Amino acid sequence: MKSLFDEITLGKIEVQNRLVRSATFEYGADQEGRYGQKMYDIYENLAKGGVGLIITGMVGVDENARVTPFMVKTYDGTFTVELQKLTELVHRYGSKMVVQIAHCGVKVQKTDAGLPPVAASKLPDKDYRELSIKDIQLLIDSFVTAATRCKDAGADGIQIHASHGYLLSQFLSPVFNKRTDEYGGSIERRAKIVFDVYDAVRAAVGGHYPIWFKINSSDLEENGLTFEECQWVCERLADMGVDAIEVSGGISISPESAPARQVQGEQDEGYFYRQAGQIAEKCKTDIISVGGYRTPELLEKKLNEGEVKAISLCRPFICEPDLANRWQSGNLAKAQCISCSKCFSPGELSCKVFPQ
Ligand SMILES: Cc1cc2nc3c(=O)[nH]c(=O)nc-3n(C[C@H](O)[C@H](O)[C@H](O)COP(=O)(O)O)c2cc1C
Fold first, then answer.
1. Which pick of 72, 74, 154, 175 has the fewest CB atoms within 10 Å?
2. H helix or E strand, kind and range, residue 248
3. Residue 13 scores a pLDDT above 90
4. Which ligand 1 atom is nearest residue 166's CA?
């Protein structure tokens, strides 16, 4: 019988419970794209709050990767030192930390140099620059550098962001990927960049360092990535040695494909659970389920229904960073979060309904 508060090994990391803070972009970097006090405060509060493991908000792997100037640059000379401080802070309270490394692709308004965004494909009427094969090699190298810096900083692992319509997800998705070379077409080809990034990062960080992925169970758009395709990619990644996969969904180009949905009641909780459960049955890697979890009894029920190993939450930890401690202390009232997603408002990360 699984309990939320089992000490387990998750994706090669020993954690104090099965609760994970899913990656949550903080708008928290300073003008230079660096971690600073604002970030340290967010992470200290979360770690104090007892969550088993924190996946950081996405950080950018190169100068074309950042969706706003307030996204952390992994390619800044100070990144390793500042991340080391952040990691030590989190470890002080017994929590663990995985850094989500990302490239936002066409979701970037302007690159650091003020240029149009880079893309899997040039699409009609869009001011995108299609990545050449050489650019793809450089992109893979930048994921490697970012991952190596996270390892050097003492982070417990990295999560490669391949979901929610960001660049790797754009490659996986036929909505964005119209390439006719080895990186476009069948799912084997659309997923090639994901496998190439994994292989290169693994070669650089070694066999023991935890490499996790976040992936869409489907794009939730017509002609998008399907569940069967996602399942195939996950099986392949698991066979290649990926340590954990967080199963999400949606490429976020319409309200229907939003990864963070409305949750009106228990019937809406765990809206990607079924897909995560099916993937967990087939894959030889740890599966984390994200999406709308709010009620502790329901989380435990879902953990015990199948092979999902941990549950991750995002919005509930914005208004209640101490949620894990609250539940562990026996106060099992469901998370306060009403899933309005107003925390998404650009410029700051805060709960507008229950201000701290
Ligand atoms: C304010 C905000 C920021 C987010 N930032 C990220 C991010 O940086 N990376 C990511 O993979 N998902 C991000 N997400 C999506 C969440 O990790 C999660 O998949 C989604 O919100 C569903 O979980 P929830 O119902 O527990 O909020 C973000 C969501 C919100 C609301």
1. 154
2. strand 244-248
3. yes
4. 11
- Whole-number Å distance between alpha carbons of 305 and 294: 17
Confidence of residue 346 (pLDDT cuts 50, 70, 90): confident
Q: What is the mean pLDDT of residues 67-87?
A: 96
At residue 31's C-alpha, the angle toward residues 65 and 66, to 5°, is 10
Question: In this predicted model, what pLDDT tens digit does every residue of 313-338 receive, in sequence order?
Answer: 999 999 999 999 999 999 999 999 99
**Distances from the Cα of 326 to the Cα of 5, 30, 296, 329, angstroms:** 12, 32, 11, 5
Q: What's the rounded Cα separation, in Å, for the pair 291 and 248?
A: 7
**Closest residue (by CA) to atom 4 of ligand 1?**
24
**Least confident stretch, 28-37, 183-192, 342-351:** 342-351
| Closest C-alpha to ligand 1, atom 12 | 23
Asked if pLDDT for residue 356 goes beyond 80, the answer is no
Rounded to whole angstroms, how far apart are CA atoms 155 and 141?
19
Residue 63 has pLDDT above 90, yes or no: yes
Length of the chain: 356
Residues pairing with 345 in the sheet: none
Query: What average pLDDT does the segment 224-231 reach?
Result: 98
Kindly list the protein residues whose Cβ atom lies closer than 6 A to any atom of ligand 1. Answer: 22-25, 57-58, 100, 161, 163-164, 214, 248, 259-260, 290-293, 313-316, 341, 343-344, 349
Say which CATH architecture domain 8-344 belongs to. Alpha-Beta Barrel (3.20)
State how far the Cα of 309 lies from the Cα of 299, in Å rounded to an integer.
11
